[in-house]
Structure formats: structure tokens, C-alpha cells
Model the fold of this input.
Amino acid sequence: MEARSESPKISASDQASLPWFQRLSRPILFLTVSLALLGAYFAFSIPVSVFPNTDFPRIVVGVDNGVMPIDQMLVTITRPIEEAVNSVPGLQKVTSITSRGSAEVDLFFAWNSDMILTLQRVDAVVARLQAELPTTAKVETHRMTFAVFPIIGYSLTSDTVPPNKLWEIATYDLKPRINRLDGVATVIIQGGRVPEFQVMPDPARLLTAGITVQDILDAIRRTNLIDSPGLIEHDHQLVLGLISGQVRTPDQIGQIVVKTSTAGVPIRLGDIASIAPSVAPTYTIVTANGKPAVLVNVDRQPESNTLQVANEVHALISELAPTLPPGVHLEPFYDQSTIVHDSIASVRDAVLLGILLSSIILVLFLRDWGTSLVAGLVIPITLLITFIVLQATGQSFNLMTLGGLAAAVGLVIDDAIVVLENIVLHRDAGQNRPQAIQSALKELTVPLIGSTVTPIVVFLPLISITGVTGSFFRALAITMTVSLFTSLLLALSWTPALSQFFVRRKDIAAPATGSEQVDITALVNAEEAHLSGFFGRIVDFYGRVMQSVLKRPWILALSSVVIVALSGVCYYFLQTGLLPEMDEGAFILDYFTPPGSSLAESNRILLHIEDILKSTPEVENTSRRTGLQLGLAAVTEANNGDFTVRLKKDRKRALDEITSDIRGEIA
Done:
């Protein structure tokens, strides 16, 4: 590549007569580089997640009311909620599940609904209805997004610390610290035993004192609080006075006055009941690696960055782990950020490999490092400009957009290669660089636009698709459309402007310009010169094959029929699915024991499955929920749940093979 020689000053009239790519080369390069830098900045601010941001047209109303029987739950809670939410605009369907002490009401809306506004309307309806529901009922509403599933899960186990202490560590030490991190929505604690005090009244003493159980409940409720008698002015200062009636030990609970006898003697709770530390009754079992455990599930905010949130949580856990009591083990059992990190790494590798291979092909074909550099720069510039549109349209880096970027690597360089090859061809035919660039653009502008718009038109209908399929393919269509359109603009502006500096001059005597035939002959000669050697032999072989086939047109007709028939057969036997199978390094094993099974019976059956998982050499750790589920589930039973199985990174067998063997052993 030779250095540019200093050119004399050009007058205004001569400047106006120059081709547009010469007059505007510097603005074009400046604008393109500026957009690329802006795209590089946005690349660090675009959210990262596994799937595209999707607001499913569904709102879940979950109710927890202890152990209330199903019939009462249905009459006093489920049915009133169903009737009340019918007034929400846009509601299409209502379904519900009612179980002992819990209920779930699912509300379905149209896909074009504003789900944030709809959730506010549902919250308003539930708030008005709250006064009519039992005071013990706890109602929660959630809109369905991919963020309702946790991105990280940690298990807390110990051989020496009891489950109630593990629950306290997770609830009071870990959860508040994790909740403060940027991008964290909620931290859900599952498992363990909730500590409480058990009050066991003596029926004989209750009868003697004329006290009911409700009197005991009211006394505890009105006593166990903090209140203020008012403001106290002292020593030129105004102080808020506080009186604490909170109880923390069985002795303090025993001192609560329940009633005053007719003789004026206070009857304390300790006089009529025994108080002892205990734990709340549980109807679920949570284990990790076969031991009782507490699971800490971290949910991200819908618009947050999965990788950033995961890194912050991992860093915080690393700080908190040394402060835990001796014998307490904190271990990750699920990490969604792994697949996101691997996807980004694969796209990065695809981009680098695409640049390398395309540059090698151009060097071998055109024998020019300058043209290879110009073509190679198109790929990163196109991707960086695409990042701007992804940021503007509210997209994220996910499996669909990253897949679109990876697929676009092989497409976006096509336009630049065609333009560069034609520029080199005209240069070798005897034209100087500006003439070669101008001739190439004149010949290829219309064909390039047509060839690029054709695949863009194919992707455009995917943007208008609704439903789950539309939410996925919309992200892919936007990414591919923007990438292809950007590559077209770069081929018609960036490539000609940059070719002035990087395409080498060719010291060939210019042909006579007296007739068009001379120019065509020169172009043909230049093209034949390009096709010498190995490439020439390939083209000659292709030409002989095509000539032989065209002499026998029945071969084309027969082969077309065979191809169409084989395509139909393959389509019939081809399996379908929303997403391809992915190796996330972990899998979920859902299970159902026979209906009506007790918690103990379900646990007995599942211990055998835990032994099978432990004996699998590729399994790193496991966690089990019985009576609970991963993600948002308001109603669960003692006979169902799931295992979360994390696999080792250095395993030799694939995920499908491992799960198939485990499924066979369980069956």
C-alpha cells in the first residue's frame, strides 16, 4: 500500500465537479466512526438476558391463607376475586386453582395490552376487595415476564446449625444485603424452619379464670408492639418518647397480662399456659445434596442486566461467606448468567472468525491487503451501528438478538465484497481509483439495493407477529433487518470513501476511450486475469458442468422434483419446538408422586431419586423442593415439586445423554 502523495489545492469549481464520494469522504468517514463509537458505548449499557424482554398478557393473583379448607377458600376468597377482576378493562379469560390454604387466579389479556397499567388496575381492584377477604389472607399480584424466574440460586446447608438458624441467616443476614444491589427485584427464601414461640393453654385454668383462646390472642396482639406516648421537651431539646412492649423470650411472653380478676389481681399468660421456643409447622421439604437446606433465589428486574446483577451477587456472596457461622456452607445451585456469558462469547468468536476468514478469502482472491482491510472493517462497523438501533428499540442482548448478529456476520460483508471486487476490476482495466469507484457504483447501486432489500422484506413480516412466537422472532427480525440495511448503506458510502485510501493504484496504461467496446474488452481481460490459477480451474470446471447440464434439461426438471419431494418428506418427519435444545450446564427434574401422598411418603420416594442423582458422576450438586416450585407458583401440593441439578463443567457426556440415563434409572 503506497502513501498518498500530496495533491495540489483544488478550486471551488473543480471541487464541485469531483464525484460525491471524493467531496464527502471525510464527513462520511467521520459520521461512520462516530456512530461506531456511539454503538460501542451502547454495547455496555444494553441489558443482557437469556430471552427477549416480553410482557406476557397474563397477571397472576396469588393468595395464601394458612390451612383454610378448600371449600371455604373457594367461597370466601377465590370466587370474590374472580368476580371483582371482571371489571378490569381488556380482560379476556379468568382461570383459577384452589387448594388448601392457597389459591391462584390467572387473568389473561390481549397481547397489545399495556401490562404495567393493567397490573395497576388489578392492584386497585384487589385493594378495594381486601376489606371483604379474611384478615389472615395475604394477596399478591404479579405480571408475567421472564424475570419472574430466578437468575441465581444459592443453597445454605449445615451439619451443625439447625434449620431455624439457617432460615434466620438467610432472612436477616443475606436477603437484606442482596436486596440492596442494583438490578435485584426480589430475594425469595425457600425452606428452613421459621422460629416462633408456642403457647399451650391449660384448659382447666382457662375455665377457672374465665378466659378464652381469643382473649389470649388479643392480649398478645395488643401487647407485642412499640408505641409512642408523644413528644417530650427536655433540656432545650424535643425528644420522641417510645415505649416498647415487644417480647423476645418465653419469660417475657409469660408476663403478658391477659385479664384482671374480679379481685383486681392480674392474670398473666404464664399462669394459664406454658410457653416454649418452637418452629412454625411446615408442609414443604427443601434439601440440597441430600441435606436440609434453605434456598436463596435472586430475581432480577425486567430491564436489568443479567450479567451485571449476577456478578454483583457473586461478589457480595464472596464477601459474606467468611462471616457465616462455622459449619454453614453456601453453594450456588443455579446460575442463569452462565448461558448468557457463553452466548456473548460465541458471538464474539463468530465475529472475529468471520472477519479473519473473509479477509483471508479476499487476500487470496484479490491479492490486495487494502481491499481486505476495507471489507473486514464492515463487519464490526455494522454490528456497532446495529447496537444503536437495539438500544433505541428497547431490545436486549439475548439468544435471539445474539443469534441474529452471529448470522448477520456472513451476510453483511457480501455487499462490501461485491463493491470492492468491482472497484478492483475497473482499476485493473486501466481506470484510476476515482474512476474505478465511480464506475463500480454506477454499475452496482441498483442491483445491490435489490439484492439487499429482498432478504429484508422476508424478515419484515416477523416484526408484526404477535404472541410468544412474535416476541422471540421480532428481536431476530429487527437485528437482521438493521444489520442488512446498515451493510447496504456502508457498501454505498463507507466502502467507496475508504477505498480511495486503501485500494492500491495500478500502474497500467489507460485504454483508448474512443468506443465502449474497448472498455468492455479491458474489463473482460481484467476479469480473466483474476480467474487465473486455482480459481480459474474452479470456474472452468463449473462452466463445463453447467454446459453439460443445460444440454440435458430433463436432468434439471427431474432433480427439482426430487428435491421438492425430499423437502416434503423431511418437513413431515422434522420435529418442532419454540427454541432449540440448549446445554445450560444444569437441568430441572419435575416430579409428581401419587395424588394424595403425604409429605413423608413423597419424601421417602424422592430419597431414592436423590441417590440416583448423587451416583451420577457428572452431577456437581442438587437441590430439591417438595411442595414448592421454581419461579412463580401460588398453589403447590405435597406430591409435586422439582430437582435443580447442576452439572460439572469438565464433563465428557452431553446434557441429553445424561438426562436420558437418569430418566431410564428412575423409570
Summary: The first strand starts at residue 58 and ends at 64. The chain is about 55% helix and 20% strand. The domain at 58-144 is CATH 3.30.70.1430 (Alpha-Beta Plaits).
